[in-house]
Design a protein that fits this description.
Pathway: Amino-acid biosynthesis; L-arginine biosynthesis; N(2)-acetyl-L-ornithine from L-glutamate: step 3/4. The strands form 2 sheets. The chain has a 7-stranded mixed sheet with strand order 8-9-7-10-13-12-11. It contains 12 helices and 13 strands. The longest helix is centred in the C-terminal third of the chain and has 16 residues. It folds into 2 domains: about 160 residues, Rossmann fold (3-Layer(aba) Sandwich); about 160 residues, Dihydrodipicolinate Reductase, domain 2, CATH 3.30.360. It is of the alpha/beta class and about 350 residues long.
Length: about 350
């Protein structure tokens, strides 16, 4: 039952992986209550059947409805966990005073030509970019009615590299190799994601600058650096359900040391609740961020090659998707930014 003091939320795409994680987080939120869950092929099912991990929650008894703007209207906040290209038409039909957080890519890119190149179709425009830890970004999200939540790979790369570029410590040419769990590819059945195909194997995909997240990385890093930043990105599929480990490297500016890199990260994240700069010598692991909205960050200098090596671990369904979407909704609704979001992971 939604109380008079509770903010009503709707989650479109609640039968997917990101939608399911978002619902798990919302189930424990102190001030937001899920009133509506929608889906496509799962419409008519009970949520607990589609998302078994929610079966013991009151949310498990909700019936998944078909996604329509009419059904989503009337909520204080609407989360759109839909395939790329499906959010724009729905968002346009929602009231302007409704907080809408899009977990898809429809409104992330500012450049229409880049959208058309990587995604095809008509560019729907851009909304405030929902990575609060980027320099100057949080004020744009506080009280916003429309927010574009970032992708998982761009989140991990920006959290590690943006502060170093903003401080002028790196050359604006970044090479990224990042491994993701299989949930990053979504819940749709694909032969390449079968257990027998994935177990015991690590494979590269989207090689050669064709992965869609490349444009998003270049956009956020260029904004932080104040100059265009080129990104060479190679994603890897790892045999694990969830998690991202991103390794970025770039040439150091003249005279920059490892101590300078760490100092810049510590300064950037001194007051950030979700970003942990690890002690010197420790490296991030995906297991340590599992189930949390945390990002673990480390940076070292390689004096032999004159390059920085920056490593970041996040849960791709947490800080990389659902957790970050909820963090953005908290900011937009004037709630504590950490409300309903776990700061610690699950181990083992």
């Amino acid at each position: 039952m939604v109380t008079a003091m509770t903010l009503k939320a709707a989650v479109a795409g609640g039968s997917g992986y990101a939608g399911g994680e978002l619902l798990r987080l919302l189930a424990a939120h102190p001030e937001i209550e899920v009133a509506t869950v929608t889906g496509a092929s799962s419409a008519g099912e009970l949520l607990g059947a589609s998302q078994p991990h929610l079966a013991a929650s009151p949310l498990g008894a909700l019936e998944i409805a078909s996604t329509t703007p009419e059904l989503l209207a009337g909520h204080e906040v609407v989360f759109l966990a839909l395939p790329h290209g499906q959010s724009a038409a729905i968002a346009e039909a929602l009231p302007v005073d409704t907080v809408v957080v899009d977990l898809g890519a429809d409104f992330r890119l500012e450049d229409a030509a880049r959208w058309e190149h990587f995604y095809g179709g008509t560019h729907a425009g851009s909304w405030p970019y929902g990575l609060p830890e980027l320099p100057g970004q949080r004020p744009l999200l506080e009280g916003a009615r429309r927010i574009a939540s970032p992708g998982c790979y761009p989140t991990s790369v920006a959290l590690g590299t943006a502060p170093l570029l903003a401080a002028g410590l790196l050359e604006p040419d970044v090479v990224v190799v990042a491994a993701s769990g299989t949930s990053g590819a979504g819940r749709a059945a694909r032969t390449s994601l079968l257990g027998s195909e994935v177990m015991g194997a690590v494979s590269a995909y989207g090689v050669g600058g064709v992965h869609r997240h490349t444009a998003e990385m270049e956009q956020s890093l260029s904004g932080a650096a104040g100059v265009p930043v080129a990104v060479s990105f190679t994603p890897l599929l790892a045999p694990m359900p969830r998690g991202i480990l991103a390794t970025s490297n770039a040439r150091l500016r003249e005279g920059v040391t490892g101590a300078d890199l760490r100092a810049a990260l510590l300064d950037a994240y001194a007051a950030e609740p979700f970003v942990v700069v690890l002690p010197e010598g420790a490296q991030p692991t995906t297991a340590a961020t599992l189930g949390s909205n945390a990002a673990h960050v480390q940076a070292v200098a390689d004096p032999r090659t004159g390059r920085a090596v920056v490593t970041v671990a996040v849960d791709n369904l947490g800080k990389g998707a659902a957790g970050q979407a909820l963090q953005n909704a908290n900011l937009a609704l004037g709630l504590p930014e950490t409300a309903g979001l776990p700061l610690v992971g699950v181990a083992p």
